[in-house]
């Protein structure tokens, strides 16, 4: 069975920003290619296999899991073995632990609206 992948509005905004920044610095072709790579990275089964079992030390005690895609990290919440929520998309040069603390506060309401119940706490 294919995993169910949900994306929070914050993550969608982050993704759009990544694409806009790529467009600002690179060609249209490069932007389209990078956008496809990011989307493929979100949807790739290897991402779900990895985030289901492996925590990243930068995530600390949070329930977030990180998956590197090119120069960005997809920040996931693993709901169960087949449901994943993309909470954010962060550039590799960001202070990942600080960003995760901010995202944790921002995404609580988004997660509850999407899932119909509060986000589990770590």
Fold and architecture overview:
- The chain is of the alpha+beta class and 122 residues long.
- It contains 4 helices and 4 strands.
- The chain has helices at residues 9-25, 28-43, 45-53, 96-115, and strands at residues 4-7, 64-69, 72-80, 83-91.
- β3 (72-80) and β4 form a beta hairpin.
- α1 runs antiparallel to α2.
- The longest helix is centred in the last third of the chain and has 20 residues, at 96-115.
- The chain is globular, with a radius of gyration of 14 Å.
Characteristics:
122 residues, alpha+beta, 23% strand
Task: Give the helix/strand layout.
Elements: E1 4-7, H1 9-25, H2 28-43, H3 45-53, E2 64-69, E3 72-80, E4 83-91, H4 96-115
Parallel strand pairs: 1-4
Antiparallel strand pairs: 2-3, 3-4
Helix pairs in contact: 1-2
Q: Indicate the overall shape.
A: globular
Q: What's the helix count?
A: 4
Element order: H for helix, E for strand: EHHHEEEH
Kindly report how far apart the N and C termini lie: 27 Å
Summary, kept brief:
Helices cover 51% and strands 23% of the residues. It has helices spanning 9-25, 28-43, 45-53, 96-115, and strands at residues 4-7, 64-69, 72-80, 83-91.
